[in-house]
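Can you please make up a whole protein chain along with its C-alpha cells because I've never seen that pairing?
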Amino acid sequence: MRIIELNKNRINELVELWNNEFSAEFPMRKELFIQNTFEDENLFLPGSWMALDNENHIIGFIISKRWQDPTPVPMPTDYGWIQVLVVSEKESNKGIGSLLLEKAENALKADGAKEILLGSDPLHYFPSIPAEYEKSAKWFERRGYTYIGNEYDLLANYDPSIKSEMPQLEGVDIKVATIEDKEGLLDFMNRVFPGRWEYETIRYFQKGGTGREFVLLKKAGKVIGFCRINDDQSPVIYSNVYWAPLFSEPLGGIGSLGVDPDERGKGYGLAAVNAGISTLRSRGINRIAIDWTAIVDFYGKMGYEIWKEYRKYRKKL
C-alpha cells in the first residue's frame, strides 16, 4: 500500500469507492463531488490523501479543508475540517483509516488549525457523522474526538391534489427574488447573517444564480427575511438536495431561513417557509427536504419528520 496526494484525475474512482460504501443512504454524483471538493477554494491538499493498493486501486481517501477563500466574509480561520474519510470495507482493520487521519491532522495542525470538526465544512457533504455509522463515531472517539450534539435532515411528502397557498402578510410583500434583488439580498445577508449564509449567497450569484432560489419578505422595499429554495434547476447543488438520487420523483429543498432581528416574533419565519413550500410545489415538487437543523419542532408544524440524523464531533489540537 502507498499514500499519495488527492488527485482530481481519479475522480471516477473516488466516486466509485464512495458509492460502493455509501450509495444506499448517500448516493454520490460526480458533479457534486467536483463541486464540493475540487471546486472549493477551501480544499486543503496538504491534508487530503488517497490510499492505493498494490494494483494502484484506490482503497481509501481523506479530504480536509481550511478556510482559504479570499471572499471578505467572517469565517473561522482556526478550524480545520475533515470533509470525509472513506476506506473500503474490504480493506478495513488494516490501519488505513488511522494513517490517513494522522496525516490529515498533522497537516492541519502544522497550518495553524486549533480545532478539527468532522463535516460542517464549507461545501460540506455532512453536518457530521451520520447516526447509522455508529462504529465510525466510536472509532473517532477513540482518536480524541468529542461528541457535541445532534443535527437532523427532515422530509415531507405533500399530496399533489392539495394546493399549498402562498401566505399573505399585512404590510409585507412576499416574492420570489429576481436578479434585480441581488444587491438588496446581499446587503441583508451582510448586515444580518454575515459569515456562512452570506458566503453561500455570494457564491450562488457567482455561479450564475438569478434569484429564483430565494423567497424574500420585503417591507417598504427592504428585505427583512428570506427562505432559500432549491430544485434540480438550481445553478448549484445545494445541501438539501444532495441525496435527490434516492427518489424517483423530483426532490426540492427548503433552507436556509432567516428574519431580521427587529422583525422577529411576528410569524414571519413561518410565513417564509410556507412561501418557499408553495413556490416549490407550484414547480411540481411535492417531496421537500430540510437539511442540517436542530429546530425539529418548528418544522414539524408544517409536517416535516426526521429523515436523517447526524452526531457532531470535534477535536481540539
Observations:
- The longest strand covers residues 146-157.
- Helices lie at 11-22, 30-38, 96-110, 134-141, 182-192, 196-206, 268-282, 296-300.
- Residues 2-125 form a domain with the Aminopeptidase fold (CATH 3.40.630.30).
